[in-house]
Amino acid sequence: MKRVIYFAGPLFTQAERIWNRKLTETILKKSSAIEIFLPQEETKKAITENGVDFKKIQEICLKGIDVCDHVLAILDGSDSDSGTCFECGYGYALGKKIVGVRTDIRTGEDQGLNAMLNQSCNSVIRYSADNDSETDIEVLAEKIIKELE
Question: How many structural domains is the chain composed of?
Fold first, then answer.
């Protein structure tokens, strides 16, 4: 039986959506035991020519977390995305395993993560790629798969 992973992360810029999709595709290529719930894809039906149905987006995402086995959270930025933080907290309250990923090279005394968020994660993968090669995202995908086992 496949494990369902909820992919929590920022998805508001083209770069974020492309990276989320690329990481998802790489993980799925490397593991046939994983299925990924990617909110940017799952919520498309809530966006129409009439506008965005934010209530429907929330319902779709909450249901995705309800049925998932684990939450994969992208925790980049000087302050992690607020929606991602909510998704982590909701998953944590449900007893889901939370795997954080931080590729951001910016750090502070808290290693770039708020204490509540850091302590809610079962593990945090800190991965700073040396360059922008395909190999880097594949190495990161392998680290994620290992943490999700």
Answer: 1
Show the domain range for 46: 3-148
Name residue 146's beta-bridge partners: none
Strands 47-48 and 51-52: antiparallel
Q: How far apart are CA 116 and CA 118, in angstroms?
A: 6
Residue pair 70/3 in contact by the 8 Å Cβ criterion = yes
The CATH number linked to 112 is: 3.40.50.450
| CA nearest neighbour of 62 among 81, 43, 80 | 43
* CB-based contacts of 95, cutoff 8 Å, min separation 6: none
Structure tokens at 101: 């990923």
- 48 strand-pairing partners: 51
Spell out the alpha helix ranges (H) of 50-133.
54-67, 82-93, 115-120
Count other Cβ atoms within 10 Å, centred on residue 21: 15
For residue range 2-50, list pLDDT tens digits in order.
999 999 999 989 999 999 999 999 999 999 999 999 999 999 999 999 9
